[in-house]
Structures are given as structure tokens and as C-alpha cells.
Design a protein that fits this description.
Blueprint: H1 2-25, E1 42-47, E2 56-60, E3 66-69, H2 71-78, H3 94-111, H4 134-139, H5 141-158, H6 168-179, H7 190-194, H8 196-213, H9 216-219, E4 221-229, E5 235-243, E6 246-254, H10 262-276, E7 281-285, H11 306-323, H12 326-335, H13 350-360, H14 362-370, H15 372-376, H16 381-394, H17 397-420, H18 430-449, H19 458-474, H20 477-485, H21 487-509
Parallel strand pairs: 4-7
Antiparallel strand pairs: 1-2, 2-3, 4-5, 5-6
Helix pairs in contact: 11-16, 13-17, 17-18
Length: 510
């Protein structure tokens, strides 16, 4: 298996090096014709034929060998065709040959297509065109219709997506050309778009982003990283910089062929931090994937929370048992209008979302497991044991009490995270939200355990310890500063100060 993967990676590297080699030696001649793409890899020194013949003295840009003849000899030399009266190019490897043959095949295919297909606006020559009215002549309706047909033909022949017509720059380009005095204008060539114009646009964008980058040292920046796949199914890791002025794309790393371990992601994050400057980075935000978060050894201190994992695991087994078989899923859909959710583990609060849906479909699950269809349903022996497990859990009131308890005490936590998970500024509200959330969690736990406020609760201690560790991990002086500068906090402070002064005045009068 290792040899196959190495061979595959070597083949990909050879293809990439061949493309790079051809890009270096390729020169687009002024009179470039797409029908003869191999002229781009040779240099015409002088014509040797009489009159308008095609013979010329040619130098190959790959091997610097002299060739005398026409395009057919260039083709024989570069594509290593026999019987052409010329030696094959020694610099053309198998990978380079594949690239050159691909270019020639595409040129042959395009040359075989008819280029003189009339436009729909041209008519078929049999029907006599009516005379245009004065308004039509004034607005040149025929020319407008022909331009529309040409643009549509461009979309159809190049396979362009129709959404391109909604691109504002596409529309502005044609409007500028139509309203400007650009007689004889020719659109930029293939080579100009991919070289000089691309460099010009990149330089312009970097110049526009410079004012935002200049604020990083004074206002700080958050680095956000996430993985995704492009239309070619290549796995990419992108990095963005978030400031009060909005998000800014930094770079995307192609992770194909690399193991996306925590060490690999840390290395890429470190490179991004070095690029921005460690002194400018306020925080780093990633998703909740296992390779992006640290896993500690199981702590015996957390044994009071093991029942939460058991309830979540039971709910997941019930969901999988129903969703993994079409017959069982069909039976469930007959009793419920809501669907069972298949939530990824990396999704925000995935277990809470799943348990909330379970509480919403509790009645449907109960009707399902007590129905005659569930009892009459026969499957493999292993599945019968699982079906009995599902029935016992669904009909167990104590299990549902645990589900409700988890949702009750986690609701304030969930609400605070949801409130913070927004693009709106909320940094100044964190302290107030934190204090309110802790009080609500304590009230839910103590009420469930039937304890007074002064009594000790081991479970509450564990929950607050976990919450405080997360808070101390993410809390920065910026939170404190934002809280102190909040207008509401300042108003409350002024009111308290005024109340204290009034109280002192009243005591002095007494």
C-alpha cells in the first residue's frame, strides 16, 4: 500500500513539474492561432521558403535544437512522431508529452467544430426582414439583439455558469464598453489575464487592505481557522483574520497528502501567527474537531458527570438504530412529523441539540415502541436485542427525567454561547452574561437536588470548575476593559455614586 501511495504522489509531482516547465518556456506569439498551439514552444528565426510558404528556420525552446520546416515538423519534434524527418526532442519526458498532446488534441477538437454557425438574430435567409420602426432605429435594436446573442453564444460554447450573468463586474464591463468611445477595442488575451492583469489586481487588493493591517498593532486581531473542500474535492485549511472592520482572508493551505494531526494544524497556525505578529494576536478560534482540541486523561474527579455521557450515548444508540434501517425509519415517520437529527460531533452543542429533539419527539417514540408493528417486526437476533434496549429506554421515566435535567441546567450555558456566537459586538456583555449564567445554573441544580443555597453540591462544583476553566482560558483583559467602558455599566456606576452621595447628604442633615 505504501508503494502505491508513493507512486501516486510521484506521478502527481511529475505532472506538476511538467506543467511548470512548459509555463517557463511558453511564449505566446503576436499572431498566435489556437489551431497551432505548439508554435508557442519554438522560436521562428527566419523564413526559408519562397513567397508565402510555411517553411522557416526554427529553434526549439526546450532543447535549443535547430529545425527547418513547417508546423508538421514542429509537431513531429515535440510529440515524438515518427516519419517526420526530424529527431524527437530529448527534453520531452512522458509527463511533458502528455501535456503537449493534450493541448494539440484540444486544438484539433476545436478546429473541427464549425465556426460559421449563424446567430439566431441573423435569420435563415429565407424570410424577409421587416423594416425597422423609427424607435427601433433610434435605439439600434438589431445591434443590441445581436450583442445579446453573441454573449449567450459565449456562455453556451464555453460552458460558463449562468450565475456569471449576475456578476456585477461582468455587467459593468459591457456597460463601460458600450458607453465609452472604444472603437477597435480588443479584449485582453489569455496570457495577459493570467499574468500582468492578475498581478495588477493582486497588488491593488493588497494596497486596499493595508489600512486594515495597520490597525492590527493597536486593536489586535483574531485568527479563525476552518477546513473545507473545494469543487475538486481537495481538502483545504483556510485562515482568516477578524477585526472590528470585518473578516480578511489570509491564506488557504492544500492539505492533500498530509495527515491533519494536531501537530500539523499547530504548525500551520504558528506560521500564520508569525505572519501577523504574535504581539498582535488576541485569540485563535478553530472548530471543535478532535485534532483541534486537546484531550486530557479522564479525571476521577469528574465521575459525578459520567451519567451525562451515558444518557447521551443511549440517545445516540436509539437514533442510530432507527435511522440505519429504512423499515424502522418508515415506521417512525408514520408517528412523527419531526425528523431525527443526524448531527456531526463537531457541530456546536451537538449533544444538547440531539437531546432537545428527543424531548420534542418523546410522544412519537413512545407510540412507536408500543405499536403492534414494532412488536411484529422481526429482524436479526442482534437487532432484536437492540430493539428491546430501545423500548426499555423510551418507556423508562427515570431516563427521561435525566434528559430533562441535562437540558434544564445546560440551557443557561447554551443560551450564553448562542448569544456570543454572533457577528454583532458583544464583548462588553460577557461579564454580565457570565454572572447571570452561573446563577441560573446553580438555581437549576440546587432545585433539582433539593438543597439550600448554603449547602454543598459536588455536581455543581464540577460544573462550575469546568465553566471557570473555559472562562479563564478564553478571558483576556479586553473583556474587562470592554465591560468597564460599557455605557450601561458606566450609567449604573454613576447611579450608585449618586445614591451614595445622596445617602451621605441625608445623614448630614439628620
Amino acid at each position: 500500500m505504501a508503494s502505491n501511495s508513493n507512486a501516486g504522489s510521484g506521478a502527481g509531482g511529475g505532472e506538476q513539474s511538467a506543467v511548470q516547465m512548459l509555463n517557463v518556456v511558453r511564449v505566446i506569439p503576436p499572431n498566435d492561432d489556437p489551431k497551432w498551439p505548439l508554435w508557442r514552444y519554438v522560436q521562428k528565426v527566419a523564413k526559408t521558403g519562397r513567397g508565402q510558404g510555411g517553411n522557416a528556420k526554427i529553434i526549439c525552446r526546450l532543447c535549443n535544437r535547430d529545425i527547418s520546416g513547417s508546423y508538421s515538423r514542429v509537431k513531429s519534434h515535440l510529440l515524438k512522431l515518427g516519419g517526420g524527418g526530424v529527431k524527437p526532442c530529448p527534453k520531452v519526458t512522458i509527463d511533458v508529452l502528455i501535456q503537449l498532446k493534450g493541448e494539440q488534441d484540444r486544438a484539433d477538437a476545436s478546429s473541427n467544430m464549425p465556426n460559421n454557425i449563424p446567430l439566431p438574430t441573423d435569420g435563415n435567409g429565407r424570410t424577409r426582414k421587416r423594416k425597422a420602426s423609427a424607435i427601433e432605429e433610434c435605439f439600434d435594436v438589431d445591434s443590441r439583439s445581436k450583442l445579446d446573442a453573441l454573449i449567450a453564444r459565449m456562455f453556451y460554447t464555453a460552458g460558463l455558469p449562468f450565475n456569471l450573468a449576475r456578476n456585477p463586474w461582468f455587467r459593468q464591463a459591457f456597460m463601460f464598453a458600450a458607453n465609452g468611445k472604444l472603437a477597435g477595442y480588443v479584449p485582453p488575451s489569455y496570457n495577459k489575464i493570467r499574468t500582468s492583469l492578475l498581478v495588477q489586481e493582486k497588488t491593488h487588493v493588497e494596497r486596499m487592505l493595508q489600512p486594515i493591517k495597520s490597525t492590527w498593532s493597536s486593536k489586535g486581531v483574531s485568527i479563525v481557522s476552518d477546513g473545507w473542500s473545494d469543487p475538486q474535492r481537495r481538502h483545504l485549511l483556510n485562515f482568516m483574520a477578524i477585526t472590528e472592520d470585518g473578516p480578511m482572508f489570509l491564506r488557504a493551505v492544500n492539505t492533500v497528502g498530509d495527515t491533519k494531526s494536531k501537530e500539523y494544524i499547530f504548525e500551520k497556525l504558528a506560521e500564520t501567527i508569525d505572519f501577523i505578529g504574535a504581539e498582535n494576536v488576541v485569540q485563535v478560534v478553530t472548530d471543535n474537531a478532535s485534532n483541534c482540541r486537546a484531550r486530557n486523561e479522564e479525571d476521577p474527579e469528574y465521575e459525578h458527570c459520567n451519567w451525562i455521557s451515558e444518557v447521551s450515548s443511549d440517545a445516540q444508540q436509539i437514533r442510530n438504530f432507527i435511522m440505519n434501517h429504512s423499515m424502522r425509519l418508515s415506521m417512525f415517520n408514520d408517528f412523527s412529523k419531526l425528523k431525527l437529527l443526524a448531527i456531526a460531533e463537531t457541530r456546536f452543542a451537538s449533544q444538547i441539540v440531539m437531546l432537545k429533539r428527543f424531548r420534542e419527539i418523546k410522544e412519537a417514540l413512545t407510540l412507536l415502541v408500543v405499536s403492534p408493528r414494532w412488536s411484529d417486526y422481526r429482524d436479526e437476533k442482534n437487532n432484536q436485542e437492540k430493539a428491546q434496549f430501545v423500548k426499555e429506554k423510551v418507556l423508562n421515566d427515570l431516563w427521561w427525567d435525566k434528559v430533562n435535567y441535562i437540558l434544564d441546567f445546560s440551557k443557561p450555558i447554551y443560551s450564553m454561547i448562542r448569544a456570543a456566537d454572533t457577528d454583532k459586538p458583544c464583548l462588553h456583555l460577557m461579564y454580565e452574561m457570565w454572572d447571570s449564567m452561573i446563577e441560573k445554573v446553580k438555581t437549576k441544580i440546587y432545585r433539582h437536588e433539593g438543597k439550600e443555597e448554603y449547602q454543598h453540591s459536588p455536581f455543581y462544583d464540577i460544573v462550575t470548575k469546568i465553566l471557570q476553566s473555559r472562562w479563564l482560558k478564553n478571558n483576556t483583559p479586553l473583556h474587562c476593559l470592554a465591560h468597564s467602558l460599557n455605557r450601561i455599566t458606566l450609567k449604573l456606576g454613576l447611579l450608585k455614586l449618586m445614591a451614595a452621595k445622596l445617602h451621605m447628604l441625608m445623614k448630614s442633615y439628620q
